[in-house]
């Protein structure tokens, strides 16, 4: 096709929408009544997002009672997650069933074992979480403790990255990690925060007693409040010029040291 001088074909404007991840849809419950029924049935739900211009009073009330985080978002966000008839509400279903920390700790003591727990403070990357769970299960950690809010969603990606470890390793979800630290200390468990600001190095610490290790956020590490509340702060000694490690790598190193000491005790 020829064009006269100064005549050019008009550019077409193409509107694109972020593609829906089909695998994610298997981990969702959406629509007002299905979400209500999931809440009534006690299904494990990581969080609920709702259209910010609707009330959803029944759902909000049940979510508050169970301590499930609720986020108000624009309609575009909901449509990016699923294009099906979500009616303005989507619940993210956990791939595992959480367990009670009280029951786990009591069971460990009843079996005559020495507790080794791993507490994750605001670790949000799903693959980091899965990798940490894999190392923890391999090294004999009894359970992972995560906060109710600000933690990675335990979905199929987490299960896959853990190489199935999350099918064997209990995960406890707690409302307040500060209260959890106090509970553990009252139960005779030493709480150790891993932070690059610590003076003590991990090889100088006794991990053969009941222990809970705290690993912190990918962005800013263990929160200052938890560092102050812990019995001890430790760091991984490093020789290179890079000042920090990926949290899943750091967790693996600390857990290994704890397991190494405990294996020596057995021998």
TrEMBL record:
Residues 28-99 form the RNA 2-O ribose methyltransferase substrate binding domain. Coiled coil: none annotated. Keywords: Methyltransferase, Transferase. It comes from Runella salmonicolor. InterPro entries: Alpha/beta_knot_MTases (IPR029028), Ribosomal_eL30-like_sf (IPR029064), rRNA_MeTrfase_TrmH (IPR004441), SpoU_MeTrfase (IPR001537), SpoU_subst-bd (IPR013123), tRNA_m1G_MTases_N (IPR029026). This is 23S rRNA (Guanosine(2251)-2'-O)-methyltransferase RlmB. Gene3D superfamilies: 3.30.1330.30, 3.40.1280.10. SMART domains: SpoU_sub_bind (SM00967).
